C-alpha cells in the first residue's frame, strides 16, 4: 500500500519494478514507432487528423507533435525530443531512438540485479567521454558553399526523397548565403517561405527578392514592370475617420460635400507627393515605379496612382516590411514629408502572377538582396507542408554549421567511433559503473543499426563490417546506404551538425537517467489542465 | 463614402461562437436566398458587408462569408464522423445559395446536433477555417481551459502567422474596411485567444472598429466547482482585456449572471427553449446578434462600427449590454404604437448580457433596432378621432419608435432603426415558438399547423448602469477566491500580479457605470 493512498484514495500508483517497466515499455514503444523513419532510406508515416487532413512525413519532430501521445512517459520523451528540435532543428528521431535504446540496455543489467543508480553513474561517465571523442573527431573547416551543400544534403535527404532534396539543397544554401551578413548573426527570418499550390515539388526555387501574396488592386496598373524603383511606406492613403473621435457639422448638402472634399484633400496631397517623386526620378528614363504600402490605399488613390503609371500594392504584411527594404534596398518611409530618391529601393523585375483568386507579386532581380524568398511549389497541400518542414530543417542545419564552424562525419560514423572509444575507456573504470559505460556504448550503435536496417541490409552484418573497417583504417567510417558497405563518411560528403550531436548526447543521457531513477509513479493530480 | 459596401470581417473564436456563428450565417444565407425571390422589397441590409466574392481555381464565382474561425481539434468534425463543412464553395454566382435549387440538406434533428458544423448550411472559403491542433475539443486531457493558454496560442509564431496571413487575405481586398466583429467564447481558454486577437487587430489596423461579442453558453451547475471557477476567471480576464483592446464589448448569454452563484436562465414570454442545449441558446443569441448589428450593415446611410461604438462607449463605458424581444409581440390588426403601448413603462426587452433585470437601472446610451414591422402597421390613424397616445400621433414608424424611446428614457442618447426585413427562422433554426403565425404574429391560444417562417424582433444595445452591479459582483467573487487552490490556472501563464491588476481594472470599469455621479441626475 503506497503512502499516497492514505492521503488520496483515488491516486493510481506503480512502484519500483512496475514503474521501471512502465517507463521502459513506453520508451521502447516510441522507439518502435520512429525507428523506421530514420535516415535517407527511412519510410514515411501517414498521419490522418480527426478532420481527415492527411500529412505524409518522416520528420520525427512533426510526427511527435502530431501524434496524440497519451502515455505520460512517452510524452515526456516526446517533449525532450521536440525540445531538441527547437534548439538545433534536427535529431529528433535519433533522440528518441537513443533514449529507448539506453533504457533497453539498462534494463538488461537491472534485471540481473544491478541498481539503477550505478548504471546512471556509468552513463554519466560515458557521456563525458563521448563528448571528448566528439571534440576530437570534429572537423573544423571554412564553411564554403560546397561544404554547406554537403551539410544541407545530408539533412534534407533524411526528410524528403533524393531528387527533391537535391533541388532544395541548392536553394536552401544559397538563401542562407544571401541573408548572411558579416558581423551579424544569421537571421533565418529574412528568408521568406512562400507557398504556391502549383506545378511540382521539384519546381521549388529560390527567388532573389521577395514574393508577396497579393497584387495591385486596380485593373489599369501594369502587370509587369522592369527596372523599377520601389517605394516602401507605411502611410495611410485612404480616407478614414481620424483616430480621435470627431464629427463635422454642416447645414446643407453642399457644405457637407465641401467638408468631405477638404478631408480628402489631405489624402490627395499625399498621393501627389508620390507622383511628384515619380516624375522626378523617372523623368527621362522609362523606369517603372512601384509602391508597397503597409497601410491601405482606397480606390480613389489607386485610380490617381494608376493614371500616372504607378503600380501600388496595399496592406503589405508587417513582417514583410523589413524584408522588403533588405531585399530591394531603400528604407521604409513613415511619412511623406521628406521624401527623397534615397528612400527608394530598386528591383530589376516586378510582375504579377494570378493563380485562381490568389495573386502573387514577384519582386525579382534585386541587386545583392539581403532577404530572399524560397518559393515552395507543389501539386497539393501535403507536399507543400512536407517541403516547408524540410526547408525549415535545412535552413537550421546550415545555420548551425556556419555558427559551429565545424562538422562531424555522418552516416553512423561518429556513433561507431564513440562506441569504440567507450569500450576501450570502460576498462579504465573501476567497479560496476563500467557496465553503465558498456550499456551506453551499445546504445549508441542503434543509429548505424537502424540506418542499415532501413536501407534493407542486415543490421548486425553491416555493423560488424563497419566496425572492422573502422579499427583497421583508423578513419571515421560510416555506412554507404546504397551498397551496404563501409565508406569513409567525410570523403562521401556526409556531414552532420556538431551541435546536434552534442545536444543529443546531453539530452538523451539526462532523460534516460531521470527515467531510470524513477521508482514510483503516482497519478493524483487535481486538474487535467496540462494533460 | 458613397459606393461600395463598408466591409466587416468576422472572427469566430471558440466552439460556442461557432454555434452562434452557424445560426448567424444560416440567417444570412436565408436572407440571400429570399432576396432573389423579388417578392420582397430590395434588401435593406447589404450582404456585401459580410460576404466576399471570389473565384475558385476553376473559374467559378463564389460568394462566401468574410470569416475567420478558430476551433480546436475535433471541434468541427460533425458527430457522425464526417467532415461536413464544405470548404470548397459552390459556384452559383452571386447571390449563390437559392434554397430552391440546392437539394435541401437533411436537416439534422436536435438530438443529433453535437457540434456546430452539423447544421451549418453555408459554404465557407477554405481560408476561413483555422484549427488549433494543440488542444482537443473533447476528452479528458489537453483542453483549452484557461485564459493564459489561449493567450499563449496566439503568441506562438505558428498560429500568429497563420492568423495574420488569413487576416491579410481578407483585409487586403477590402476597399472600405470598417472594422472587425469578434465572436468569442468567454468561458474557456478562447477568452485569451480573443483578447490576443483583439490586441493584434488593434495594433495592426488602428482606426477600425472592433466590436466584440463575448459569448457564454448555457447555465452552470454549482457541482462542477472547478469548471465554474475557471469560467469566472476566464470571463473576468476576457472582459477586461477585450474591453481594453476593442471599441466595444458586449457579453451575450442567456444565463442570469456572470458570477459564481447560478441564476436561472432568462425567460422569453413567447419562446420555449432548453437552456442546456447550445443549439437553442445559440439560435436565440444569433437572432439578437443579427438584429443589433443592423446599424452597420444597412445599405443606405449605415452607421459605421466606429460611430456606433463611439456613441455607446463614451467616457470609457466600453462594455455594453444587449437585450431583445423575440419575437416582438404584434397581434394581428395591432399597430406599432398599440404594441409598444402594451409594454407600459417596463423595459420591453429581455436582457441577454447576464446582467440582471434592466428595470430600475439607468441607461446612458442606446442603439435600438426594430425589424419585421410592416409599413402598414406603423400607424393607423382614423381621421377625426383624437389619437389615443402621443405615439399614435406620429406619422412614420421611425418617429413612433423615436418617440417611444424618448418617453421611456428621456435624456438618453438613442439611435433607432426600423426595418421591414424580418428575421427568418427557416430550419435548421429550432422550433421555439409556441403561438405564432407564419409571419411571426403573436396569436392567442394553441399554435396553428403552419411553421413559423419569420419573426419581428426588437433588439437593443445599451450602456446601462446595471453593469456597475455586474462588474462589481464579478470583482467581489474574484476577491473571495483562494487563488492558491487554482494554481493550474496560474500555471498557464497568468501571474498573481495580473489578478490584482485585473481586479483594479474591473473596479475602475465598474466605476464608469456608477449611476449616481452623473451630471444629469
UniProtKB/TrEMBL annotation, chain A:
<dbReference type="GO" id="GO:0006457">
    <property type="term" value="P:protein folding"/>
</dbReference>
<keyword id="KW-0007">Acetylation</keyword>
<dbReference type="InterPro" id="IPR027410">
    <property type="entry name" value="TCP-1-like_intermed_sf"/>
</dbReference>
<dbReference type="InterPro" id="IPR017998">
    <property type="entry name" value="Chaperone_TCP-1"/>
</dbReference>
<dbReference type="InterPro" id="IPR012722">
    <property type="entry name" value="Chap_CCT_zeta"/>
</dbReference>
<keyword id="KW-0963">Cytoplasm</keyword>
<dbReference type="InterPro" id="IPR027413">
    <property type="entry name" value="GROEL-like_equatorial_sf"/>
</dbReference>
<dbReference type="GO" id="GO:0140662">
    <property type="term" value="F:ATP-dependent protein folding chaperone"/>
</dbReference>
<dbReference type="InterPro" id="IPR002423">
    <property type="entry name" value="Cpn60/GroEL/TCP-1"/>
</dbReference>
<dbReference type="GO" id="GO:0005832">
    <property type="term" value="C:chaperonin-containing T-complex"/>
</dbReference>
<protein>
    <submittedName>
        <fullName>Chaperonin containing TCP1 subunit 6B</fullName>
    </submittedName>
</protein>
<dbReference type="GO" id="GO:0016887">
    <property type="term" value="F:ATP hydrolysis activity"/>
</dbReference>
<keyword id="KW-0067">ATP-binding</keyword>
<comment type="function">
    <text>Component of the chaperonin-containing T-complex (TRiC), a molecular chaperone complex that assists the folding of actin, tubulin and other proteins upon ATP hydrolysis. The TRiC complex mediates the folding of WRAP53/TCAB1, thereby regulating telomere maintenance. As part of the TRiC complex may play a role in the assembly of BBSome, a complex involved in ciliogenesis regulating transports vesicles to the cilia.</text>
</comment>
<keyword id="KW-0547">Nucleotide-binding</keyword>
<dbReference type="Pfam" id="PF00118">
    <property type="entry name" value="Cpn60_TCP1"/>
</dbReference>
<keyword id="KW-0143">Chaperone</keyword>
<dbReference type="InterPro" id="IPR027409">
    <property type="entry name" value="GroEL-like_apical_dom_sf"/>
</dbReference>
<dbReference type="GO" id="GO:0051082">
    <property type="term" value="F:unfolded protein binding"/>
</dbReference>
<comment type="similarity">
    <text>Belongs to the TCP-1 chaperonin family.</text>
</comment>
<dbReference type="InterPro" id="IPR053374">
    <property type="entry name" value="TCP-1_chaperonin"/>
</dbReference>
<dbReference type="GO" id="GO:0005524">
    <property type="term" value="F:ATP binding"/>
</dbReference>
From TrEMBL, chain B:
<comment type="similarity">
    <text>Belongs to the misato family.</text>
</comment>
<dbReference type="Pfam" id="PF10644">
    <property type="entry name" value="Misat_Tub_SegII"/>
</dbReference>
<keyword id="KW-0496">Mitochondrion</keyword>
<protein>
    <recommendedName>
        <fullName>Protein misato homolog 1</fullName>
    </recommendedName>
</protein>
<dbReference type="GO" id="GO:0007005">
    <property type="term" value="P:mitochondrion organization"/>
</dbReference>
<dbReference type="InterPro" id="IPR036525">
    <property type="entry name" value="Tubulin/FtsZ_GTPase_sf"/>
</dbReference>
<keyword id="KW-0963">Cytoplasm</keyword>
<feature type="domain" description="Misato Segment II tubulin-like">
    <location>
        <begin position="6"/>
        <end position="76"/>
    </location>
</feature>
<dbReference type="InterPro" id="IPR029209">
    <property type="entry name" value="DML1/Misato_tubulin"/>
</dbReference>
<dbReference type="GO" id="GO:0005739">
    <property type="term" value="C:mitochondrion"/>
</dbReference>
<dbReference type="InterPro" id="IPR049942">
    <property type="entry name" value="DML1/Misato"/>
</dbReference>
<feature type="domain" description="DML1/Misato tubulin">
    <location>
        <begin position="109"/>
        <end position="298"/>
    </location>
</feature>
<dbReference type="Pfam" id="PF14881">
    <property type="entry name" value="Tubulin_3"/>
</dbReference>
<dbReference type="InterPro" id="IPR019605">
    <property type="entry name" value="Misato_II_tubulin-like"/>
</dbReference>
<comment type="function">
    <text>Involved in the regulation of mitochondrial distribution and morphology. Required for mitochondrial fusion and mitochondrial network formation.</text>
</comment>
Amino acid at each position: 500500500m503506497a503512502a499516497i493512498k492514505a492521503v488520496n484514495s483515488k491516486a493510481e500508483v506503480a512502484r519500483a519494478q512496475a514503474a521501471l517497466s512502465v517507463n521502459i515499455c513506453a520508451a521502447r514503444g516510441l522507439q518502435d514507432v520512429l525507428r523506421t523513419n530514420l535516415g535517407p532510406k527511412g519510410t514515411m508515416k501517414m498521419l490522418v487528423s480527426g478532420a481527415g487532413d492527411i500529412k505524409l512525413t518522416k520528420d520525427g519532430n512533426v510526427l511527435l507533435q502530431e501524434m496524440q501521445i497519451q502515455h505520460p512517459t512517452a510524452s515526456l520523451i516526446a517533449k525532450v525530443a521536440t525540445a531538441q528540435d527547437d534548439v538545433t532543428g534536427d535529431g529528433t528521431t535519433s533522440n528518441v531512438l537513443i533514449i529507448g535504446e539506453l533504457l533497453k540496455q539498462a534494463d538488461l543489467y537491472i534485471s540481473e540485479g544491478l541498481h539503477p543508480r550505478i548504471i546512471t553513474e556509468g552513463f554519466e561517465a560515458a557521456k563525458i567521454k563521448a563528448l571528448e571523442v566528439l571534440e576530437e573527431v570534429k572537423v573544423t573547416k571554412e564553411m564554403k558553399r560546397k561544404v554547406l551543400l554537403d551539410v544541407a544534403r545530408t539533412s534534407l535527404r533524411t526528410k524528403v526523397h533524393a531528387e527533391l532534396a537535391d533541388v532544395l539543397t541548392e536553394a536552401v544554401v544559397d538563401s542562407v548565403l544571401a541573408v548572411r551578413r558579416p558581423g551579424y548573426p544569421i537571421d533565418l527570418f529574412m528568408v521568406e517561405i512562400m507557398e504556391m499550390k502549383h506545378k511540382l515539388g521539384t519546381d521549388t526555387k529560390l527567388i532573389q527578392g521577395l514574393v508577396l501574396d497579393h497584387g495591385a488592386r486596380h485593373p489599369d496598373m501594369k502587370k509587369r514592370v522592369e527596372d523599377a524603383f520601389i517605394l516602401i511606406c507605411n502611410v495611410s492613403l485612404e480616407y478614414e475617420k481620424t483616430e480621435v473621435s470627431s464629427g463635422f457639422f454642416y447645414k446643407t448638402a453642399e457644405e457637407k460635400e465641401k467638408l468631405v472634399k477638404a478631408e480628402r484633400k489631405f489624402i490627395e496631397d499625399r498621393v501627389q507627393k508620390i507622383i511628384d517623386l515619380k516624375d522626378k526620378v523617372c523623368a527621362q528614363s522609362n523606369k517603372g515605379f512601384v509602391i508597397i504600402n503597409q497601410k491601405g490605399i482606397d480606390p480613389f488613390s489607386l485610380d490617381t496612382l494608376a493614371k500616372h503609371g504607378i503600380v501600388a500594392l496595399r496592406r503589405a504584411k508587417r513582417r514583410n516590411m523589413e524584408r522588403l527594404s533588405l531585399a530591394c534596398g531603400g528604407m521604409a518611409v513613415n511619412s511623406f514629408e521628406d521624401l527623397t530618391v534615397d528612400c527608394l529601393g530598386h528591383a530589376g523585375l516586378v510582375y504579377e502572377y494570378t493563380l485562381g483568386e490568389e495573386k502573387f507579386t514577384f519582386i525579382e532581380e534585386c541587386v545583392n538582396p539581403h532577404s530572399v524568398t524560397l518559393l515552395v511549389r507543389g501539386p497539393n497541400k501535403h507536399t507543400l507542408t512536407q517541403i516547408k518542414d524540410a526547408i525549415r530543417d535545412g535552413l537550421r542545419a546550415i545555420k548551425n554549421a556556419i555558427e559551429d564552424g565545424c562538422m562531424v562525419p555522418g552516416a553512423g560514423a561518429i556513433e561507431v567511433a564513440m562506441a569504440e572509444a567507450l569500450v576501450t575507456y570502460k576498462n579504465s573504470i573501476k567497479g560496476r559503473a563500467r557496465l553503465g559505460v558498456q550499456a551506453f556504448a551499445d546504445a549508441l550503435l542503434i543509429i548505424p543499426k537502424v540506418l542499415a536496417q532501413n536501407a534493407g541490409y542486415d543490421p548486425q552484418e553491416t555493423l560488424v563490417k563497419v566496425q572492422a573497417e573502422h579499427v583497421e583504417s583508423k578513419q571515421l567510417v560510416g555506412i554507404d546506404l546504397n551498397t551496404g558497405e563501409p565508406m569513409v563518411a567525410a570523403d562521401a560528403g556526409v556531414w552532420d551538425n556538431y551541435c546536434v550531436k552534442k545536444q543529443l548526447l546531453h539530452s538523451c543521457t539526462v532523460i534516460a537517467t531521470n527515467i531510470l531513477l524513477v521508482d514510483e509513479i503516482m497519478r493524483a493530480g487535481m486538474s487535467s489542465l496540462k494533460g | 463614402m458613397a459606393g461600395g459596401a463598408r466591409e466587416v470581417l468576422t472572427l469566430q473564436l471558440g466552439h460556442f461562437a461557432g454555434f452562434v456563428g452557424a445560426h448567424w450565417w444560416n440567417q444570412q444565407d436565408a436572407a440571400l436566398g429570399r432576396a432573389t425571390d423579388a417578392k420582397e422589397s430590395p434588401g435593406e441590409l447589404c450582404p456585401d458587408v459580410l460576404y466576399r466574392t471570389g473565384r475558385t481555381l476553376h473559374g467559378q464565382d463564389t460568394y462566401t462569408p468574410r470569416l475567420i474561425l478558430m476551433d480546436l481539434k475535433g471541434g468541427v468534425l460533425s458527430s457522425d464522423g464526417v467532415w461536413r463543412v464544405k470548404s470548397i464553395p459552390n459556384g452559383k454566382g452571386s447571390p449563390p445559395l437559392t434554397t430552391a435549387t440546392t437539394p435541401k440538406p437533411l436537416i439534422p434533428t436536435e438530438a443529433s446536433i453535437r457540434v456546430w458544423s452539423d447544421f451549418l448550411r453555408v459554404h465557407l472559403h477554405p481560408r476561413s477555417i483555422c484549427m488549433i491542433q494543440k488542444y482537443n475539443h473533447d476528452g479528458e486531457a489537453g483542453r483549452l481551459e484557461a485564459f493564459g493558454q489561449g493567450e499563449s496560442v496566439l503568441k506562438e509564431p505558428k498560429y500568429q502567422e497563420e492568423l495574420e496571413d488569413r487576416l491579410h487575405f481578407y483585409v487586403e481586398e477590402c476597399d472600405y474596411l470598417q472594422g472587425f466583429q469578434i465572436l468569442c467564447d468567454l468561458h474557456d481558454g478562447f477568452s485569451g485567444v480573443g483578447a490576443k486577437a483583439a490586441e493584434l487587430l488593434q495594433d495592426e489596423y488602428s482606426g477600425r472598429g472592433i466590436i466584440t461579442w463575448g459569448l457564454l453558453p448555457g447555465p452552470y451547475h454549482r457541482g462542477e466547482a472547478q469548471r465554474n471557477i475557471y469560467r469566472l476567471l476566464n470571463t473576468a480576464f476576457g472582459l477586461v482585456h477585450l474591453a481594453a483592446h476593442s471599441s466595444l464589448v458586449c457579453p451575450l448569454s442567456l444565463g442570469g449572471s456572470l458570477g459564481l452563484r447560478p441564476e436561472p436562465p432568462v425567460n422569453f414570454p413567447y419562446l420555449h427553449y432548453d437552456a442546456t442545449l447550445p443549439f437553442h441558446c445559440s439560435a436565440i443569441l444569433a437572432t439578437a446578434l443579427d438584429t443589433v448589428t443592423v446599424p452597420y450593415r444597412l445599405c443606405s446611410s449605415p452607421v459605421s462600427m466606429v460611430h456606433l461604438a463611439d456613441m455607446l462607449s463614451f467616457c470609457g463605458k466600453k462594455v455594453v449590454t444587449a437585450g431583445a424581444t423575440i419575437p416582438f409581440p404584434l397581434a394581428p390588426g395591432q399597430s406599432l404604437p398599440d404594441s409598444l403601448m402594451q409594454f407600459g413603462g417596463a423595459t420591453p426587452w429581455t436582457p441577454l448580457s447576464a446582467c440582471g433585470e434592466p428595470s430600475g437601472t439607468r441607461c446612458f446610451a442606446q442603439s435600438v433596432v426594430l425589424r419585421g414591422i410592416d409599413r402598414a402597421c406603423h400607424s393607423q390613424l382614423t381621421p377625426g378621432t383624437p389619437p389615443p397616445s402621443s405615439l399614435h400621433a406620429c406619422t412614420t414608424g421611425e418617429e413612433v419608435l423615436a418617440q417611444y424611446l424618448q418617453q421611456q428614457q428621456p435624456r438618453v442618447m438613442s439611435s433607432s432603426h426600423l426595418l421591414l426585413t424580418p428575421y427568418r427562422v427557416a430550419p435548421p433554426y429550432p422550433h421555439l415558438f409556441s403561438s405564432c403565425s407564419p409571419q411571426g404574429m403573436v396569436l392567442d391560444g394553441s399554435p396553428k399547423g403552419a411553421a413559423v417562417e419569420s419573426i419581428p424582433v426588437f433588439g437593443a444595445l445599451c450602456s446601462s448602469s446595471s453593469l456597475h452591479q455586474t462588474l462589481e459582483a464579478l470583482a467581489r467573487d474574484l476577491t473571495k477566491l483562494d487563488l492558491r487552490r487554482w494554481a493550474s490556472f496560474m500555471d498557464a501563464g497568468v501571474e498573481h500580479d495580473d489578478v490584482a491588476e485585473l481586479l483594479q481594472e474591473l473596479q475602475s470599469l465598474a466605476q464608469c457605470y456608477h449611476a449616481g455621479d452623473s451630471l444629469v441626475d
